[in-house]
Amino acid sequence: MGIWSRMRGARVARKGRAGAAGAPGSGPSKQDVRVAVTHLKEFVASRRGVEMYVEPRTSVTPTTVVLIATSGEWTRRRVSDPRAAGQLARDLGVPVYDVQQTGYPNRMREWTSQQRRDQA
Residue 68's beta-bridge partner residues? Predict the structure, then answer.
């Protein structure tokens, strides 16, 4: 097999995986959505002062939302697009921010650093 044939084969293989579950271009399945929404509702119900931050889609990751409590504890889940994130924020009754505009709150970094120290 020549080099060009191998490269074409690799390109076809990569294209074939683009629609796989979890790939940036594919949306979450209905089951993924149910599980994520349940988790996010429980997070909001069990913590104070939760805010949502929307992270944009990149070439590596899909659009995601990060819920951050007043304590700094956080959780991340993927969503299909920014509009879905906005609707989810309305459904959960939490304020929503674009992380590219606001950045992450310091309490998130502090909480994560504390968790790492506690695990060491």
Answer: 51, 74
Q: How many whole angstroms separate alpha carbon 113 and alpha carbon 70?
A: 15
How many structural domains is the chain composed of? 1
Q: What is the pLDDT of residues 72-106, one digit of tens each?
A: 999 999 888 999 999 999 999 999 999 999 999 99
Q: Quick one: which of 117, 32, 6, 24 has its CA closest to 62? A: 24
Torsional class of 56: left (φ above 0), alpha (ψ -120 to 50), beta (otherwise): beta
pTM score, two decimals?
Answer: 0.75
Residue 43 in any domain: the answer is yes
Backbone angles phi, psi at 72, to 5 degrees: 100, -15
DSSP H or E stretch at residue 83: helix 82-92
Place of tokens 């594919």: 26
* Domain assignment present for 71: yes
* Residue 97 token pair: 């921010």
**Residue whose structure tokens are 């959780």:** 75
Q: Is residue 61 part of a domain?
A: yes
